[in-house]
Amino acid sequence: KFNASKAVDMMKTAVQERVRRLPIAEEDVLPDLNKGFIYWHGRDRQCRPCLVIRLERLGDMATDKERAVRLVMFTLEYALRFAMVPGRVENWVVIMDLANVMRTISPLRIGSMASTAAAIGMTLEKVYCGRMVWLKIVNMPGGLARVVNGLIPAEKKEKVSFPTDVSAELLKHMEPHQLESCYGGTAPDLAPNETYPFRFFKNPRGEAALLKEHTMESLSSGESEPEDFSMHESTQLAFHEGFSWDDSSAAARGRWFEKAKMSSLTPASANALSELGEDNEPVQPCRDIDQWLEIVNPAATDSSCTMRMVEQEDKVEI
Predict the structure, then answer these.
(1) DSSP strand E in 88-220: where?
(2) Which residues are bridge partners to 92 per DSSP?
(3) In this predicted model, what pLDDT tens digit does every residue of 74-93 receive, in sequence order?
(4) 123 with 8: CB under 8 angstroms?
(5) Which contacts qualify for 153-156: CB closer than 8 Å, 24 or more apart?
(6) Is residue 178 within 8 Å of residue 50, measured between CB atoms?
């Protein structure tokens, strides 16, 4: 933070790594996805996807740095495209499980594993910097504590913890049905070949989600039922790419200001944009799913609503 030279270095690394390795096809990494080494499972109460890393399942990837990094990048790119909502959910949380790692890693492979771990760490820190909110390292063997702690950059230490009561710690952040039972949740533990396709579940917010309900009655009044169709089918590339709020000059601001006003803004973003306006006119935030869908892609919303109403009519005739 506030280190310009380091920021430039990270930007260069991010561009170089992405150009070098992307795109990555699912078929190229599918055998490794089915090993269960790294996978998405549920969300925390802020709707941030949870990444699970289980080092005991690293297997022969411990000696193949390139293969491990490609798997990690595919998994993280998946989240950026399908598990995030730009402007709303832009970060992830991580559970790193070191259970049985000392029994599965041969002492003769520690050197190559360290090299692979460093490459994965670089990918997380530089290629996808700013995305991780917290990292919980669980089931850590006592002999590794000093080594692991020494590998964590000083500026990242406040995000990393080593809970002894794993269940109590994780349930502070996540609903039980979002977690596997081995971490204190109620979802079934997954075998390696069950972790992909990745698992996401309804209602990660718990009681907070009950503040607003969408029903078939609301559909007839023009509101949309978000669980009835893929939200990603309602978004376009521009929504995921976003744009920079360049405030370096009036001319620069003029190129994006009106477009930004029509975006699906959070209250904080709307307030910030209002302060940048010359007339101090308040910019309205987007506060519910129906308004969000109308802003992002109204044509897709109208099409989905029409299809659902036709389906309901067909059911009545039958």
Answers:
(1) 92-97, 132-138, 160-161
(2) 132
(3) 999 899 888 887 777 888 99
(4) no
(5) 153/125, 155/1, 156/125
(6) yes
End-to-end CA distance of the chain: 63
* Confidence (pTM): 0.72
Burial (Cβ within 10 Å: 0-12, 13-18, ≥19) of residue 178: buried
Distance CA 16, CA 36 (A): 28
And the tokens for 118?
């460093």
The pair of three-digit structure tokens given for residue 191, joined into one six-digit string: 């075998």
What tokens does 64 get?
A: 């193949």
- The two tokens of residue 153 are 């950059």
Band (pLDDT 50/70/90 cuts) for residue 223 is very low
Task: Decide: 260 and 87 in contact? Cβ < 8 Å.
Answer: no
Asked which of 14-18, 96-100, 244-248 is least confident by mean pLDDT, the reply is 14-18
Residue 136's CB: how many other CB atoms inside 10 A? 20
Look up residue 119 and give its two tokens. Answer: 């490459």
